[in-house]
Amino acid sequence: MSSIAAAWKRLPWWVEPMAVVFALTAFGIYSLTIVVFYPGVFQEYVSPFYSPEVGRPDWLPWFITAPVLILWIPLGFRATCYYYRKAYYRAFFWDPPACQAKAQQLDRPWARSTESYKGERALFVLNNIHRYFLYATIMVVAFLWYEAFLTVFTPDGFQITVASLLWFLNIVLVSAYTFSCHSFRHLVGGNKDCYSCIRGGNVRRKTYNFVSRLNTRHPQWAWYSLVSLLATDIYLRLMQAGVITDFPIIGG
Ligand code: FES
Q1: Which one, 10, 63, 169, 186, has least CB within 10 Å?
Q2: 187 inside domain
Q3: What is the reported pTM?
């Protein structure tokens, strides 16, 4: 793994922003396409993109499908995430495209100076509501855990299949991403100056330390959970289309 990381660091500086542009654009197009144009219900297991399943009032315009009523929560959470913000400011707006110091060393004329930075203005001021997206996402994550358990405790008994393993892998990675959030770290203990002065301080301190350890890998959780989400959805979609058959590991 470290050799992969070392090889990645040796690549030209523009590879990372370009990879981010490609990955986020592809993910955005894919997720919006499947929830707007293919909001179908899965027979055996529901896709994580369509969970939790909610009712849809008939008066809504056609493009506001039932999954769209939920998707704005995780999408908003990711769009306002501190890590993704850094990634897409660099990748989409080149503001700056890489480290400022490095940019100046390489004598890039388009590198913006720190004096010109005015903070997040206009529409980007919405990024400040990240913590509210966190609260809503925690509720979605709870439903996803419930849905994951439904894939192993079926009306016919207990089973473990490749689909249920993918569901669990995905929800573990999505949970790691959600609970390594900087806002969550602040919520569980970052907003306290003295743990011994508050009730349950020891638990708060331990939780804060645990979340801090998770937080050091927040970018990795962001990408792993994105890939696992796509992999689970594509696998279930291929099952639904009859292209592949789910492989039973226990029971099933
Ligand atoms: S900072 Fe990335 S999800 Fe909160």
Answers
A1: 10
A2: no
A3: 0.85
